Amino acid sequence: MLNIMLIGAPGSGKGTQANFIKEDFGLAHISTGDLFRANIENGTTLGTTAKAFMDKGDLVPDDLVIKMLYERLSEDDSKNGFMLDGYPRTVEQAKALDSMLTEMTFKLDIIINLKVNDETVIKRLLGRGRTDDNTETITNRLKVFKSQSEPVLEYYNGKIKILNIESEGTALSIYENIKNKIK
Ligand code: AP5
Questions:
Q1: Which of 11, 76, 91, 109 has CA atoms 20 to 30 A from the CA of 143?
Q2: Does the pTM exceed 0.85?
Q3: Is the pLDDT of residue 178 over 90?
Q4: pLDDT tens-digit series, residues 113-138
Q5: Does a structural domain hold residue 183?
């Protein structure tokens, strides 16, 4: 069983690489961004609250994210191995995750840190055009990543194995590198 965490700036390719990894390793893909977008689509109260933050490129408050993640991790498929995509994004979320994993008797095996230039991010995201992919929001998402999410890597440094991956070049070449390093 393998439990992975994917961390990286917006547009670093977390979702893209998660799709390759889950095919090969048969892991439950848990993306907090996707969970929020599903809530928005279904018109839930959580979705309405989250949307206001997502549209600006700000983080959804920790208590809401932590509760949602706890519920998702409690689902049956997580027991066979999971991959977190976009969680944790704050040290507070990382600490909450540690408690959840202890309670659920799960262990995190590897953190995959996708490293990418801001220029590449902007090019990729403007090319995609999701509702939060406009210049103003992308700029804020990058700022928020640097100030609130990069400290998560410092938090785990020395505690969990971190694979640093250059996420430039083709999606497939990046995946080949990840796959070789996981094995
Ligand atoms: P989330 O959905 O997680 O978005 P994000 O982190 O901004 O990441 P993206 O989905 O934009 O990029 P990605 O790294 O997954 O790259 P992708 O593979 O898609 O979060 C959205 C919002 O939800 C947050 O801003 C926040 O408000 C909220 N949220 C979510 N989780 C939260 C949490 N834990 N706490 C608080 N708030 C939270 O690729 C992007 C594009 O690039 C695609 O078009 C793709 O085809 C292309 N691409 C990827 N790789 C390559 C490549 N190698 N070459 C060329 N193109 C590529």
A1: 109
A2: yes
A3: yes
A4: 999 999 999 999 999 999 999 999 99
A5: no
- Which pair of tokens denotes residue 79? 């027991």
Q: Which atom of ligand 1 is nearest to the CA of 114?
A: 14
Which residue is listed with tokens 């191995």? 81
Cα(64) to ligand 1 centroid in Å equals 19
Q: How far are the Cα atoms of 27, 40, 42, 124 from residue 35, in angstroms, in the given order?
A: 16, 9, 11, 22
Q: Which domain holds residue 159?
A: 2-177
* Rounded-to-integer distance, Cα 14 and Cα 12, Å: 6
What's the total number of domains in the chain? 1
Nearest CA to ligand 1 atom 42: 124
Query: Cα separations (Å) of 169 from 38, 94, 121?
Result: 30, 30, 12
pLDDT of residue 1: 87
Amino acid at 12: S
State the CATH number of the domain containing residue 72: 3.40.50.300
C-alpha distances in Å from residue 123, one per residue of 2, 47, 153:
33, 28, 25
pLDDT averaged over the chain?
Answer: 97
Atom of ligand 1 nearest to the CA of 53: 27
- How far apart are the C-alpha atoms of 20 and 165, rounded to whole Å? 15
